[in-house]
């Protein structure tokens, strides 16, 4: 065989072999994802398995499968989530995080994946509170770093004693323990608590305040924003989103 031809054949074989090896060892990228374990039913710890479950967990797992990444989940207090994504220690986060202009200055958001708002919950024997105006002069619990805290500061300010708590369980325990008069927080979480641990002891009052939308949070400039939006869109189109929604909340909302 001609020497140059022989070298060409060997080089081609090596290149093909190297290519095969590269494909064989290609791995799905692992992405750091942060969440708050106390925002039920969006994310919570399964006491039997020790794994995180909930609406958000089903959403991010379905997104990851379609977008092409593995989830490396980290739990932390809600107030630390945006800073963790902002600094890059976490690439993605979801924990019922409301899309706001202020947050969008330091992180990127996906397309909205859940419509929410704020509601008031009081003890079952409370006959005095039925609206936001009735909270004036009272002690109100909410969550540190949440949009509900900002809303209370804006609407009531010094007219009420606004007490932020690090976790949702803390603020509900304060309500049941009569340390606060009311809680104002995200409507789906308030409703879930009232229908589960707070059943018979609490009630939801007043209208829905501050219509909000939740989004998945990303480090600024993340490569995963577009694939995530594409995954969310396909999940709505093929019914996967409705299946997940129905599992945790009942009948899925109309697409209109």
From TrEMBL:
Q: Please report the stretch or stretches of sequence annotated as the Solute-binding protein family 3/N-terminal domain.
A: 30-252
Family, per the entry? Answer: Belongs to the bacterial solute-binding protein 3 family.
Q: What GO terms are given for molecular function?
A: ligand-gated monoatomic ion channel activity
Q: Which SMART domains does this entry report, sorted A to Z?
A: PBPb, PBPe
Keyword Signal (UniProt): yes
* Endpoints of the signal sequence: 1-26
Coiled-coil residue spans: none
InterPro entries for the chain:
Iontro_rcpt_C, SBP_3_CS, Solute-binding_3/MltF_N
Question: Could you read off the lineage of the organism from its UniProt record?
Answer: Bacteria, Pseudomonadati, Pseudomonadota, Gammaproteobacteria, Oceanospirillales
Domain (Ionotropic glutamate receptor C-terminal) spans 30-251
Name it: Transporter substrate-binding domain-containing protein
Q: Which organism is it from?
A: Vreelandella alkaliphila
List the GO terms this entry assigns under cellular component, sorted alphabetically: cell envelope; membrane
Q: Which UniProt keywords apply?
A: Signal
Compartments where found: Cell envelope
């Amino acid at each position: 065989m001609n020497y140059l031809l022989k070298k060409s054949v060997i080089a081609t074989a090596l290149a093909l072999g190297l290519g095969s090896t590269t494909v064989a060892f290609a791995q799905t990228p692992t992405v750091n994802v942060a969440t708050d374990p106390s925002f039920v039913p969006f994310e919570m710890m399964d006491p039997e398995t020790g794994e995180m479950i909930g609406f958000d967990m089903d959403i991010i797992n379905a997104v990851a499968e379609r977008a092409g990444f593995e989830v490396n989940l980290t739990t932390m207090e809600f107030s630390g989530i945006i800073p963790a994504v902002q600094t890059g220690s976490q690439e993605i986060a979801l924990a019922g995080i409301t899309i706001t202009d202020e947050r969008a200055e330091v992180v990127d958001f996906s397309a909205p994946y859940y419509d929410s708002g704020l509601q008031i919950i009081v003890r079952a024997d409370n006959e005095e509170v039925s609206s936001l105006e009735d909270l004036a002069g009272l002690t109100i619990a909410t969550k540190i770093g949440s949009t509900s805290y900002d809303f209370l500061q804006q609407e009531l300010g010094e007219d009420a004693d606004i007490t932020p708590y690090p976790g949702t369980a803390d603020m509900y325990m304060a309500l049941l323990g009569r340390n606060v008069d009311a809680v104002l927080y995200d409507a789906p979480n308030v409703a879930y608590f009232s229908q589960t641990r707070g059943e018979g002891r609490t009630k939801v009052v007043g209208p829905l305040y501050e219509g909000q939308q939740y989004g998945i949070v990303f480090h600024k400039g993340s490569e995963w924003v577009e694939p995530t939006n594409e995954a969310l869109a396909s999940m709505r189109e093929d019914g996967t989103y409705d299946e997940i929604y129905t599992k945790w909340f009942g009948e899925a909302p109309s697409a209109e």
